[in-house]
Amino acid sequence: MSEVAQETQAFVEAAGMTNVGLARTGNEDAFLIATLQRSLVVQNASAAAKNEGARDSLAGTLLIVADGMGGEGGGDIASRVAVETVASYLLDALPRAPPVVVPAGEGTATSVQAQLFSAILAGDSRVKEAARHSSTPRMGTTLTLALVLWPSLYVAHVGDTRCYLLREGQFSRLTTDHTMAQKLIDEAVPPVESDSPLHDVLWNSLGGAEQRPDPQLVELELKLGDRLLLCTDGLTKHVSDPEILLALSAQEPNATQCARLIELANAGGGSDNVTVLVANVLSSAPTTHSA
């Protein structure tokens, strides 16, 4: 007698919103919410092959936020080019099979992390190329992405956009700001004032420097009910983590929470563009199969 096993499935429900803020005349932020999906459409085949069926293969859910810099139109070009390049690279490069961990002694990154690293470098290259053909040769951008391949979450991060995880009331930041102020704090230098301009100076970005970016890569296992937040520093300059937690804890649609967070950022000063993505990991019907 065969055993029947149930495999837990999940889907990601996400919403995003961007706002120019109260002090800027243009918006240099960019964001993307996408399903990476590959399809096999059988046009003709033998009966046995047809029985296998043509099906869509869900590769994952991709969330990206970028905060451009450069002024005079350069920042919005940099963020848009970076988001488009990274997303296109991952669509072509991500393996169709589940992630495979690199064997011990051959590195510490999974194959997915390696693809994310390469995607970031591709984005950096394209931003630098765009800068060479523009009037703002020093354009650059931050970029933070979250890729959900259930049950795994992969985060790749450059700059001071952030990714947060809310799990069972516990709110944690998964990324570290790549600012000179944070670097000094990490090196146990005397405290940096909260209004120091060093909080706005990035040492790590796409296209903003001659050296290539050094992305932070994070991998963890998700649980049903987890909530993700990706945001630019237009939010975190004016809204504290406890205030963000309170807003995310409300039982409201994701789009409503995005709007509420942007409203809080503008009420707190609105000195920058602000972009917010909120995503929930929800349960879908379990898949039943014979063992």
Compact overview of the structure:
By secondary structure, this protein is of the alpha+beta class. Helices cover 28% and strands 31% of the residues.
State the end-to-end CA separation. 10 Å
Q: Helicity, in percent?
A: 25-40%
CATH topology tier name: Phosphatase 2c, domain 1
Question: What is the class in the CATH system?
Answer: Alpha Beta
For the secondary structure, the number of strands is: 13
Number of helices: 7
Report the C-alpha radius of gyration, rounded: 21 Å
CATH architecture: 4-Layer Sandwich
On the 0 to 100 scale, the average pLDDT is: 85
The fraction of residues assigned to DSSP E strands is: 25-35%
CATH superfamily: PPM-type phosphatase domain
Task: Compute the number of structural domains.
Answer: 1
Order of helices and strands: EEEHEHHEEEEEHEEHHHEE
Shape field? globular
Secondary-structure content class: alpha+beta
Mind summarizing the main beta sheet?
Answer: 6 strands, antiparallel
Unreliable residue runs: 1-5, 51-56, 96-108, 286-291
Helices and strands in order:
Layout: E1 4-7, E2 10-19, E3 29-39, H1 47-52, E4 56-69, H2 74-93, H3 111-132, E5 140-141, E6 143-149, E7 152-158, E8 162-167, E9 170-173, H4 180-186, E10 216-221, E11 227-231, H5 233-236, H6 241-248, H7 254-267, E12 274-283, E13 287-290
Antiparallel strand pairs: 1-13, 2-12, 3-4, 4-5, 4-6, 6-7, 7-10, 8-9, 8-11, 11-12
Helix pairs in contact: 2-3
